[in-house]
Amino acid sequence: MTALALHCTIHHKSYFDRKHYFYADLPAGYQITQQRRAVAVDGRLDYSLLGGGRQGDQVQRRSVRIKQIQLEQDSGKSLHDDQRSQTLIDLNRAGVGLMELVMEPDMTCGEEAAAAVRELQLLLQALGTCQGNMSEGQLRVDANVSVHRPGEPLGIRTEVKNINSARFLARAIDYEIERQIKALGRGEAILNETRNFDSKSGHTIPMRDKEGLQDYRFMPEPNLPPLVVYEDHRSVPAGLLEGGGQAGLVVVLEGLREGLPELPSATRARLVSSYGLRPEHSFILVNGDGLTEYFEAVVKETRKEPGKAAGLMHMVSTDGDPFTLHITR
Fold it and tell me: In this predicted model, what pLDDT tens digit does every residue of 190-237 receive, in sequence order?
């Protein structure tokens, strides 16, 4: 459903592969991923951010291309203790399946990346794919950052790993852009490396370099068959739908497409058309946790003018910051 909501091309048959490498938080010595053919490719995420206008509340629409969506195994978590000079390994999530979404380099600053991730978070919640709670690790972001002069190819990129907050994502990207520009201005080379974001200092810290060409020795995963999905019920082999335990395992895109819920962009459009709200008010309501439901309940119970109710929530949400107001009951 995620691939359908993101306008992806879904492969009717995708494959699993083993990616071999040694790392302390991957005890099996390999990771199951989709290197040959991912489940979905060539999608698009449309998102919006507030900016421009006299009061900085004009809705600006953006779009980022989705390169692919793939299924793979999660690794464990390394916990570094600098005081004791040791690293602890949490293997509770090692081997658990996850969905990785790869975006193209279409964003130019931390604000755009944070807005895109927030839109993705809302979309995943609407679909029921996951709750998208970044602080609990349900959604994590790896940011690849590079700088270049206009008209020149993209520069050497660094990867900032495991960012667990939209705010931290914006800060990490903006810091890394500034760091790389200053380094190039001093005549220094940018290293292809993995970095970590320190939320206290607001700086990124090098973890390990990626300069060496690593041979992952990809091979077909021998224990997992291809993942097969069908466009409609007519394309499903008759034997799979005739009772038995396998009937419930058949994935039919036609049925999933018909069952898609109202997505965040459609909710904003409905608020504007049904209640006559300004686009920036619909943006705040949808991006806030529980605000849309609360707004519609207030309008229904009190018969208050929708525009005034939405404007009041806009003011209450601390200068229009949709991350600071959460309505749970």
Answer: 999 999 999 999 999 998 766 556 788 999 999 999 999 999 988 888
DSSP 105-167: S---SHHHHHHHHHHHHHHHHHHTS----GGGTSS-EEEEE----TTSPP---EEEEEE--HH
Three-state DSSP at 31 gives strand
Say yes or no to pLDDT of 113 above 60: yes
Euclidean distance between CA atoms 144 and 83, whole angstroms: 29
Q: What is the DSSP string of 246-278?
A: TGGG--BHHHHHHT----HHHHHHHHHHHH---
* pLDDT for residue 320: 45
DSSP state, residue 323: T
At residue 44, φ and ψ (nearest 5 deg) are -155, 135
pTM: 0.87
Helix (H, G, I), strand (E, B) or coil at 307: helix
What average pLDDT score do residues 271-295 get?
88
User: How far is 107 from 97, CA to CA, in rounded Å?
Assistant: 28
Please give the Cα distance from 31 to 94 (Å, whole number): 10
